[in-house]
Amino acid sequence: MKVLKAVELKTFAHIEIEESINRDIFYKKYVNQNKPVVIRGETKKWKALDWNTDYFKSNETGKKVSIKVGNVSEGKRELMLISDYVALLDEYEQKIKAGIEADKPGYLHDIPFFYMFPEYLKDIYPFPKELLPQWYWEKWQNYIQFFMGSTGSLTPLHFDTLMTNNLFFQVVGRKKFILIDIQHKKECYIHGWRWAKFDPQNPDYEKFPEAKGLEIKEAVLEPGDILYMPPGMLHQVHGLSQSISFNIDWHTPKSAFKGASTCLWKGAPLKNVYYNALLYAGLGLKVSEKRIFPLYKSYLNYVS
């Protein structure tokens, strides 16, 4: 086991790293203990680590995807072909490398990419589905949310809307995660259910005095890395380069029950209770995934 050195801007506490991991250790040491971990190089054999602009252009289907523009938390979107979007990303990266001022392209954020484009699935094998509860194993790809963005892309500090576990896969480029445990969400000045006003990268302690003394952790992810975040962990995400990544929000029976039973009185939207209840019906009450997913799949658009 190693610790991850902080390499960008401020120095925070380290997140544990495992060079490889099996299911028993993953659950015993991290999931059951609500501890984050980086699994280093777990997917280094994926063909997807070689994805580039030409590859996406050659696979263009004519189907448009939703690109977030402006602040990610505001949810403004435009529809665009993937081939056009990656061309904008490349143009932006070339300009900033040349020292030319350029407007940032939008952020391809939280789309069910492999559900929409199953032809790309062949590039993410072997997939470590054993890290998920067995209920997800047959159709794990349906639960993936996908991200593609430029250097300098930013997702403000927040926690995942259903209070799920999160496996985050870095595919191309590098990202930095800044993490704060959910028990300190009050000190992060939460608004709109899950977004924080406090910025741990550029803290203003005069405006947000309760944030002083927060234990803040960070991890820099390289291609092939997986980051596990336990339910409710606040995270701020920085694109350190042009990058591609995706995650799976997933529940255990325990976290699904907690999400369904406590989210509403803590201020969550009513839909959150509905989606968590569906997952508890599957994971806790053993309703088949085939019966649950048709009801749940609208979440894949709702979360974005």
Structure description:
- With about 300 residues, the protein is α+β, with helices and mostly antiparallel strands.
- Helix content is about 25%, strand content about 25%.
- The chain contains eight helices and 17 strands.
- The chain has helices at about 25-30, 55-60, 80-95, 115, 255-260, 270-285, 290-295, 300, and strands spanning about 1-5, 15, 15-20, 35-40, 65-70, 75-80, 105-110, 145-150, 155-160, 165-170, 175-180, 190, 195, 215-220, 225-230, 235-240, 245-250.
- A hairpin with an 8-residue loop joins strand 5 (about 65-70) and strand 6.
- Helix 6 runs antiparallel to helix 7.
- Mean pLDDT is about 90; it is low at about 1-10.
**CA distance, first residue to last residue:** 35 Å
Provide the helix percentage: 10-25%
User: How many strands?
Assistant: 17
Number of helices: 8
Uncertain regions spanning at least 5 consecutive residues: 1-9
Rg from alpha-carbon coordinates: 19 Å
Q: Please provide the ordered H/E string of secondary-structure elements.
A: EEEHEHEEHEHEEEEEEEEEEHHHH
Strand content: 25-35%
Strand order of the largest sheet: 1-3-4-15-10-17-8-7-5-6
Overall, the morphology is: globular
> Mind describing the biggest β-sheet?
10 strands, mixed
The chain-level mean pLDDT equals 92
Structural class of the helix and strand makeup? Answer: alpha+beta
